[in-house]
Every structure is written in structure tokens, then in C-alpha cells.
Automatic annotation (TrEMBL):
Assigned EC number: 5.1.1.7
Protein localization: Cytoplasm
PANTHER family: DIAMINOPIMELATE EPIMERASE, DIAMINOPIMELATE EPIMERASE, CHLOROPLASTIC
Positions of the catalytic residues: C71, C220
Protein's name in the database: Diaminopimelate epimerase
PROSITE patterns in the record: DAP_EPIMERASE
Record bears the keyword Metal-binding: no
SUBUNIT field: Homodimer.
Domain of life: Bacteria
Gene: dapF
Organism (species): Natranaerovirga hydrolytica
Lineage, uppermost ranks: Bacteria, Bacillati, Bacillota, Clostridia, Lachnospirales
Length: 275
């Protein structure tokens, strides 16, 4: 079976072209291929498939085999894959995900996609839909105690759940220690992604992320989107900001006119192989 390893700012996934390949047990395959010692090594597996609702369909599985609704970095790579490999000649495409249909606008240089702008849709604040168990709506300042320290979280869904908290120095913060506990906290019925954010200024945020089912990753596109929205809600940021992640920068805008979030960032091929 042919595969392509790609990444968005270091958030790396294995991509399978299901127009040509047949994957019968994607959860098991995700666990096996994602293993960084005995497999290809990745944050998960992405299947690029035909769709009856859009131009393409994306299914993604975390490194632990769980299926996720969406991934901003992964969907940018899907756009690059289908264009660079001739599955489409359009620069504007629709991709079906478990979080709905997302629209991609691709920027091409020398015949290859370099940047992808994704319409991530509207943020979701209803706690029942995030989902998070809370009396607040929107969920701002939800407290969770971890190892004796109380953290305030703002909870937002952009098709998948996110819990955002603010720290003074994100570089030195114990992301793994705190993230793995918050991910499975009883307040999150479907677990949650956890973002730790340092506000540099109104136009710049630094973020590290603990991804549900994968652990800490180099970047998270949906997490960057949720982070901007949460930071606007907390009056700490403008509606358009650069999110600085371990793997690089994303430009995120929460548009005031249509209430949609727009994410712009790169997509990169690492290598191709046969499994």
C-alpha cells in the first residue's frame, strides 16, 4: 500500500489515497503505522476518500486509533495532496469531515500548493455541543484543579472540543503533566484537546497543545482557531492574530462579518513510501 507522510508545521500524519487503496481497519492501521519506533511514525492516519457531499472526504485517526472530527493541519495537507497529485485542478475545494464541510483556498507556487486558507466555520459555545459539563454559556473561567493548582479554562468547539488556559511562560510549562489529566477530566464527555497559551500582545499568541488521543504535538490547527476565539472572548487579543506554535506560525482570523474562523498556513510533504 502506498502512503505519503505530510505535515502542517510539524503536526505530521500519514496520508492514504483511498481512490486507489482500500483500508479495511483504519483504527488498527493508525496505531500500527503511527508508532515512531516500529511504524512510519506520526500523530495519526488520514484517509483521502470520495465524497457524495463535497469534492473529497477526509477521515482521520489519532495515533491511539480513535477517530477525530477534524484537524486543521491535516486538512491543509489534504488540499495539497489532491492538487499536487492531479486529483483536482481547482484551487477552491470542499472537503467533507465529521465536523462538516470545510472550504479550502489554495495558493500555488511553481505548480505546487504552498499555503492553504481554510474556512473553519463558526465557533460553537453551547456546552452541550462542545461538549463540556458546565453551567456557563459561553464556558469562560471553568475551573479545573490539577495536582493542587487551579486553572481557568475557556471551552470552545470548532468541530472538536478544546479547553484553553493562559500561562505566563508557555515554554517552561509542564504541558504533558497537566494536559493528560485535563484531557480525561470528567467535565469532558468526549475528552478534550488542551491549549496552553501565552499572550505576547494583541496580535501575537504563543501556544502549546496537548491533543486528545495523540499527546503533545508540534501544532494544532483547530486548537489555534479555538485559542484565538477564546482569547477574543477574554479580551486579550484582536480578531486576527499570529499563533506561534512549536512547529511554526499560523495566521488565524475570526471574521466579524460572517462569524467564520479562517486559518492560513503551510502544508509540506515529508516523504512517500510503501507499507
Amino acid at each position: 500500500m502506498k502512503f505519503t507522510k505530510m505535515h502542517g508545521l510539524g503536526n505530521d500524519y500519514i496520508y492514504i489515497n483511498c481512490f486507489e487503496e482500500d483500508v479495511k481497519k483504519p483504527s488498527e492501521l493508525a496505531i500500527e503505522m503511527s508508532n515512531r519506533n516500529f511504524g512510519v511514525g506520526s500523530d495519526g492516519l488520514v484517509l483521502i476518500m470520495p465524497s457524495q457531499k463535497a469534492d473529497f472526504r477526509m477521515r482521520m485517526f489519532n495515533a491511539d486509533g480513535s477517530e477525530a472530527e477534524m484537524c486543521g493541519n491535516a486538512i491543509r495537507c489534504v488540499g495539497k495532496y489532491v492538487y499536487d497529485n492531479g486529483l483536482t485542478h481547482e484551487l477552491n475545494i470542499a472537503v467533507e469531515t465529521l465536523a462538516g464541510i470545510k472550504i479550502l483556498d489554495m495558493k500555488v507556487e511553481n505548480g505546487k500548493v504552498e499555503l492553504v486558507k481554510v474556512d473553519m466555520g463558526e465557533p460553537i459555545f453551547d456546552p452541550a455541543l462542545v461538549p463540556v459539563k458546565s453551567e456557563k454559556n459561553p464556558v469562560i473561567g471553568e475551573t479545573i484543579e490539577v495536582n493542587g493548582t487551579v486553572y481557568d479554562f475557556t471551552c470552545v468547539s470548532v468541530g472538536n472540543p478544546h479547553a484553553i488556559t493562559y500561562v505566563h511562560n508557555v515554554d517552561d510549562f509542564p504541558v504533558q503533566e497537566v494536559g493528560k489529566i485535563v484531557e480525561v477530566n470528567e467535565k469532558f464527555p468526549k475528552k478534550t484537546n488542551v491549549e496552553f497559551v501565552q499572550v505576547v500582545d494583541k496580535n501575537t499568541l504563543k501556544m502549546r497543545v496537548w491533543e486528545r488521543g495523540s499527546g503533545e504535538t508540534m501544532a494544532c490547527g483547530t486548537g489555534a482557531c479555538a485559542t484565538l476565539v477564546a482569547t477574543v472572548l477574554n479580551n486579550k487579543s484582536n480578531r486576527k492574530s499570529t499563533i506561534k506554535l512549536l512547529g511554526g506560525d499560523l495566521l488565524i482570523e475570526w471574521n466579524d462579518n460572517d462569524n467564520h474562523i479562517y486559518m492560513t498556513g503551510p502544508a509540506t510533504v515529508s516523504f512517500q513510501g510503501i507499507w
